[in-house]
Amino acid sequence: MRRCAIAQRPDWRARVERSGLVFHTAQETGVYWGEGTYYEFTSAEADAIEAATRELHARCLDAVRHVIERRRYAELGLGELAHQLCEQSWRDQPPSLYGRFDFALGDGVPKMLEYNADTPTSLLEAGVIQWQWRAEVLPDADQFTLVHEKLIATWRQLAPRLGELVHFACVEDLEDEMTIGYLRDTAEQAGLRTCSLAMEDVGWNRARGELVDLEGRAIRALFKLYPWEGVLGDRLAAVVPTAPVLWIEPAWKMILSNKAILPILWELFPGHPNLLPSSREPLADPAGVVRKPLLGREGSNVTIAAPGVDVATAGPYSETGYVYQRYAELGCHDGMRPVVGSWVIGGEPAGVGIRETDGYVTSNTARFVPHIIA
């Protein structure tokens, strides 16, 4: 894997905006879309990422089954309502659309940093923007990007279960709204009828016993770009178990998006080549240790203590509890450290997107950089 420079397209901002990427540049943090650079994988590295994604997704499902069967919810900080919803959704197997592994590839072997199986973003960038960049800039190159095709195919597969109208909801946030817009587009390309609303506008009709939108229409299938821990903390939490709704993603995904799954995975599959040693108790590891909050996002409240590395980030997740994971080198390329995001769509590997930063913690300001396969 190597980082390469290439000429920028003169009108690249207008090009990515036409495809829906409207936050390519931020006044506070600079350029988000990494025009003028790309990463080059070997075919062997791409194959290794695909194989690790397929393998780890299967092992993660094993871990969810284990947590539910052994009722290990307390280790994840999940209360009784969460227990009920996880067990109900695992039993009923409602639709699941997607998730994203974050891998370190510093030594050439994909190492799982975490699995955002509930609310991952950077989907449009991986599925459309980098593919268009490759077609225009390096048309003879290959790329591991099947996101768009697999989203449409998965929506078609799920369509018989979703009813006449699929609602899409998120909070007021530019990135989330862009992601929702892209997902709606892929669903509509699959033949589904969709509409969107804010999470705060999801209502409850007590007389009818169902969730409703602002027009009073029943919400039967709801894609929510909103974490399950947020749902369970909201005013409608008590009615969620009885509401006749297919939730996408399903409630059992809250087990995988909780970083307490990392030590459970290591316990179940010790020595797995794609896993890093992890524990709920502080580790002593000569390679270094990363402390992560159970429900942390965007690199918040992370500390790293490793040879030559002493990092601590601030954030709002200090009260959620922590896990400890062996430090994994991301690899340094021209002073930048990349995290490889590997997508799972419809239960299958679907391609990668790369975020890079000059620091040691990948935050929401990290640049998205396209890739090719040599």
Helix content: 25-40%
In angstroms, what separates the terminal alpha carbons?
9 Å
Query: Describe the biggest sheet?
Result: 5 strands, antiparallel
Summing up helix and strand content along with how strands pair, one would put the structural category as: alpha+beta
Any idea what the shape is?
A: globular
Instruction: Please work out how many helical segments DSSP would assign.
Output: 9
- Gyration radius, rounded: 20 Å
Give the overall average pLDDT: 95
**Number of β-strand runs:** 21
Major sheet: order of its strands? Answer: 6-5-18-19-20
β-sheet strand percentage: 25-35%
Number of domains: 2
Low-pLDDT ranges: none
Assembly classification: single chain
Helix/strand order, N-terminal first: EHEEEHHEEHHEHEEEEHEHHEEEEEEEEE
Q: Can you walk me through this structure?
A:
The protein has 374 residues and is an alpha+beta fold. It folds into 2 domains: 2-21 and 29-258 and 332-373, no CATH class; 277-326, no CATH class. The protein is 30% helix and 25% strand. The chain is built from 9 helices and 21 strands. It has helices at residues 12-18, 43-70, 80-92, 123-137, 147-162, 174-189, 228-232, 253-256, 261-268; strands at 2-5, 25-26, 30-31, 37-41, 98-104, 111-116, 166-170, 194-198, 203-205, 210-212, 221-225, 246-248, 278-279, 289-293, 303-306, 309-312, 322-326, 337-345, 348-357, 367-369, 371-373. The strands form 6 sheets. The protein has a 5-stranded antiparallel sheet. The chain has a 5-stranded antiparallel sheet with strand order 13-17-14-15-16. Strands 8-7-11-12 form a 4-stranded parallel sheet, with helices on one face. A hairpin with a 6-residue loop joins strand 5 (98-104) and strand 6 (111-116). Helix 2 packs across helix 9 and helix 5 packs across helix 6. The radius of gyration is 20 Å and the shape is globular. The N and C termini lie close together (9 Å). The relative contact order is 0.19. The mean pLDDT is 95.
